Amino acid sequence: MFFTSEVGVRQSAMGFFVRVSVFNQFIVSVFWNFMADIFNTVQARRLHGFVAVGGSLRSLGAGIAGISLFALPLAAIRAATGLWLARRHARIAIANEEGT
Length: 100
Known about the structure:
Blueprint: H1 6-38, H2 41-99
């Protein structure tokens, strides 16, 4: 491991969180500046609401997909481990019965 104490891990995690938050704010600002540059006033009044709703729905979908991408493989690993342990336990039980 790179860190020898819990303090180093905590400081690294806080630094990572701050960097990701700043990057996220920067990207959102750049996006809306770009949108303001490419649309005129009439188009902006008509389309910016749809773009904002689309971004919110995308964020919601990404959160759901992120949970699914993490939870489903984890559930599959847990199920496979459970089956392996049950099979191993059954083999040991059969071997013990045959041996006695």
